[in-house]
Amino acid sequence: MKDYYKILEVEEKASANEIKKSYRTLSKKYHPDINPEGAEQFKDIAEAYDTLGNEGKRTQYDQAKNNPFAGGGGGSSFQDMFNQMFGGASQQSRQQPMRKSAPDKIVKVMVSPIESYKGIQKTIRYVKDNHCQPCNGKGGDQQTCGTCKGQGFQVKVFGTGFMTQQIRQTCPTCAGRGYTLIHKCYNCSGNGIKSVANEINVTLPKGVDDGQYLKVANAGDFKNGEYGDLILQIQMAPKDGYEKINNDLIYNLYLNLEEVQKDKFLIPHPDGDLQMASPKLFDTSKPLRLKNKGYNGGDMYVKLNVKFERVD
Predict the structure, then answer these.
(1) Residues 6+ apart with CB under 8 A from 81
(2) What is the pTM of this model?
(3) For 22, which DSSP code?
């Protein structure tokens, strides 16, 4: 079982906010666009947060983690534990070829603060690797690998007597697929995939935040006989004077000298315009606060800015 707490670099007693903060930091650090060698760490981090970031899943994970003989969640049977200790391979590992699952595909999605406040349906356009139809994603005519007999791996034995250790290695002939190609497909040259322009409609939830990742199952690229997931990376961009900081909605209000003298301001808000009394001390360094007018119970802050033309 993977240690999700260790992956997210938090303690088991960490709060939801601490887990979320660590997830954001690590996901940016190991994002493939920033760190090309961090793809595997990034996937583990997303998997860990998918569990620990959900209260129900976290409870189930903690229960399984503290019970070494619990089923599911990456746990293994006593027989598998024995086999791992003394070099044997479990029945399942002997029967299943070593095939890697399809990797996730990451697509950046630009979202404005107002779109996040209301929730919005967006059309996501991206290039997708589909399975080749003429060969049905197989790459051509296949035959069972003669080196590994279709297992996708070879077992190397080291040591003698009771202290024997078995190590499973990827088959060098078929690269773990369990088969080799006799005749390559004319349409895909044996790759089993064809790149196409694809689009899907996705409803983004209210309050979606910068740096957040949303998963669309099986909408990614086709590889190793299956479709991976599509990961939407949310990027928040200020627009029309609005910004989003955590659950707070920020608005930049620009006033001229005449408007500064008025008793009230009109504040545009996604739910409808709001009126705010002008402060007695007009201080542009201190934003005005409107309680519970932000995201998910957060507040709205109005930054006051004065603009005017000088008369020479």
Answers:
(1) none
(2) 0.59
(3) H
